Amino acid sequence: MSDQTNLTNFSGDKKAWPVYITIGNLPSARRNSPGSMAVLLLALLPIPPKLSKSSKADQCQRKINADTLQDVFGLIFAPLQDVAHTGIAIDCADGKVPQCFPMLSTWIADHMENVALHGLKTNSCPKCEVPTHQLGTNARSHRTRDYARYQRYKPENQNSGSKSDDDHIICDNLGIGQNIFHHLDRVSASDLYKPDMLHTIYLGLFKHMMDWIEGFLKKHGRLQAFDDVWKALPPYPGFLVPKKAYREVTQWQGKEMRNLGRCILGVLAVALRQPGGAQVIPFKRALGCVRALVDFNMMAQYRSHTSDTIAYMEDYLDQFHKLKDIFLEFRVTKRTQDKVDKQRKEIRRQRALVIERVAPSLRRRMRDDNRQEENDLCLDLVCGESHFNFIKMHLLSHFCDHIRQFGNILMYSREIGELAHKSQIKDRWRQSNKNDAARQIVHSYGRQHAIRMRLLNLESLKCRDADLSGDVLHHLDRTASTVTAAAPVVRRRVLKGRREDVSNVVDFSRISGVSLEIIYRELIRYSRHNLPAAHRLPEDHAMLRSLPVELLTQLEIPVLAFQEADVYEIHRARSTGDLHFRNQGSRNDWVWVQAGTEEMYGALRGRLPAKLVALLKIRDYRSDDTVRRVAGVQMLTPVNSGRLSDQHGLVTVQMREDARGFTIVDIGTILGLAHLIQEEDRRWLINSRIDLRTFNEVY
């Protein structure tokens, strides 16, 4: 794993080029954990000098840089070459000493790093021999790269004579320098490349897509509607609620783009609602294109796959390529824009000469007709000159093949390298005296790692009741270890945040604004439908009024993580009523309520979203002080029987038309938080792309 990074933020141009190493035998969850120290700093590569403005000097400098890089990696890979065939004895944790054959299996880097190390040009694929003019297609039949065969195409290795068309294509993709991996034994250089979701999707396709969407919204006058929906998004676990309009954000990083992918489909669907007659087809195609890319991204995050999920990914990618032409006019390069400006200027000059000879009464009509014709001609020029032939568009086609061959994509996460930059490079740079800083960075982290290994060994000896000194035992008790097993998640719903101003249903009615008659009716209905006859609540209003009641503001719900057997996430559903939450307005979250069987409510499969109005504990002193934990909610009802929309693939819900605006349910039926995007008054879209579990369950 390697990646250049900046050491200074606001002044200077100090950079570092670290190389990290890790072991493929480790579980990916442990390897990608920031505190596991499973990614180690191996070397710091030399930073090439800046290029001059002379093309001849630049060419010479690039050749020197490539040769230097080849020599440095030769030193780094030399130990692997020595043991590739003979093996090496390595001590294992179980006490055995097996003969191991360490081999380079993966090189995790962004695209620019990959082409530099593989000796390719910028717009070339490190995996296959796709021509540049086919990067924007979804063709998957290109030949895999054979880097050993490429050596005879290098200028210094070529013989005189004519080249075939295939030779010309190969030579056009080759850069300066050789592939640094092709000399390694038992290593296939083309298989070292692994898909990079951070730079390919989040910082690549999503950033391009948002530029296209912004131009599309501007053309159709929907930018303000998009900003209004964007600023009104509700909270959700792990989701950063936007505090600014989309156009007010000036810098987008990987975290923000990942956040955008979880809500962009719903926000765009609301912004493009109620299209005009001529907007129906463009809006439908734009939503279909965005939906396909978002669904491809969601499915690519799965930790385990089947043939069906891979087929879904291929279908989503095919659909994206089929509909992406709706954004073609917004893929305008600077060269194309210059041509458009020149054409527009020439057309206006010619029309001005014609209009001068026309009667004044006809000039306005001619100007309107000429303006429309001018826009049509410019649009034709833009569509003829624009294309989608850029490398990140093509790299998506390798995701499915990678999953079939190597497993899930998150196993080779590029983001762990970004985290390693901070702890192993940037923090060490700040702690150094900036004099021979590279040596200090490597030595500092080496010492930290050695101390950490010593602590792990001491902890292991302590667990085996070894004879350790008192000072060592005291230090181990005082030092928190990151490998200590985390406290198990309490797998039950917990109510917190008791309010002191409520002691009975009368107080609750006064605080919530719900009439006593409705509260009595819902308590009786809840008791009849959920409690055994011997333990039901009293149905006499006077007795209900006398029962002690506690009003709380938070419900912690353990939710099983997607594709996990024993990992739970805690959803904290809040219902503050009229109280402010964190110096802001009141907060009453949306939750999922199990309201029926899986055959009900279409794609919702028996679940309904509801607004959490109140969290209550009701103590029944007649039945051994039994405490009933219930919630007051406002249930929504699905539109169109809960079927997915043909345009955006989301389910629409609305407020009930009947009188049951307030319903009491057992907190055991609350499954977790829901994420709804308001479409209009009393009507919402269910954002099923907010996380993988919701995406997998609402379809």
Please report the distance between the alpha carbons of the first and last residues: 37 Å
Radius of gyration: 32 Å
- Uncertain segments of ≥5 residues (pLDDT<50)? 481-487
The average pLDDT is: 85
The best one-word shape is: flat
Secondary structure tally: strands: 16
β-sheet strand percentage: 5-15%
* Helix coverage percent: 40-55%
The domain count comes to 5
Determine the number of helices (DSSP H or I, runs of at least 4 residues).
23
SS-based class: alpha+beta
Largest sheet: 11 strands, antiparallel
Word description of this protein:
Helix content is about 40%, strand content about 15%. With about 700 residues, it is of the alpha+beta class. It has five domains: about 5-195, no CATH class; about 200-330, no CATH class; about 335-385; about 435-485, no CATH class; about 495-695, no CATH class. A hairpin with an 8-residue loop joins β1 and β2. α13 packs antiparallel against α14. The protein is flat, with a radius of gyration of 32 Å. The two termini are about 35 Å apart.
